[in-house]
Amino acid sequence: MRLNKYISSCGVCSRREADKLIAEGRITVNGELPSPGLDVSETDTVCLDGTVIEAKEKHSYLAYYKPVGVVCTTRDSHAEKTVIDDLGFSDRVTYAGRLDKESEGLLIMTDDGDLIQAMMKGSNKHEKEYEVTVNKNINGDFLKKMSLGVYLRDLDRTTRPCTVKRTGTRSFNIILTQGLNRQIRRMCHELGFEVVSLKRIRVMCVELKNHNLKAGEYESLTDEEVAKLYRDTKLGEKNGNRRDKKGV
Questions:
Q1: So what's the pLDDT on residue 90?
Q2: What span, in angstroms and rounded, lies between the C-alpha atoms of 60 and 83?
Q3: Res. 234: pLDDT tops 80
Q4: Claim: this prediction has a pTM higher than 0.70
Q5: Which of 3.30.70.1560, 3.90.226.10, 3.50.50.60, 3.30.70.890 would CATH assign to domain 127-203?
Q6: 100 included as an active-site residue
Q7: pLDDT at 244 > cutoff 50
Q8: Between residues 15 and 175, the one the model is more confident about
Q9: Which of 88, 140, 187, 207 is deepest in the core (most CB within 10 A)?
Q10: How far apart are CA 113 and CA 5, in angstroms?
Q11: Architecture of the domain made up of 61-111+210-246
């Protein structure tokens, strides 16, 4: 198995972030720094920052309500609080899709690297839904431009068409099928608006409202949710799930 896939299967991070860990020299295999593209076997000892990491037979799947001010990173000496600090979960898990520091809402946290990889693959066009409030009144022209796709000058990319529905004079719901960095904030800025609040309320089949969580709380996904995530990501069937819940 490729080293980055193995690291992901241990629930440390996504494959892309595993490549970064390898490049930063934080991963060793049998006590040595690995070469790019290295394959590992069950007889190899893989360590992150000197601690052995191992693949798991049974995984955890959590719905977590990220509060505003918490940073989506597993390690950052400059962050006041990371998602891992705030989550306070007993096992090593990571997130499938980021939320920026100023945003709140649903994160799927798991140690199932295959699921993380499948959920984060942009070409799969998995839906994520948000509630957004901006700094001034919106009109039909704004909604139309948002839904058709917005050219982001600093990224030199045009966003995919998406579903946008007005919910108030300055608020709307938006369903995205891609995850560009700070995408909604960039889209609004290009159209002359600034985001006041942003909350993710759904990731694929998992809805925040179904878990009745307050900011900073988490709860295990149901077996049905996990099974549907597996079906929708074309990973097949998944049965069984560890049960955990935390209240703040």
A1: 75
A2: 16
A3: yes
A4: yes
A5: 3.30.70.1560
A6: yes
A7: yes
A8: 175
A9: 187
A10: 8
A11: 2-Layer Sandwich (3.30)
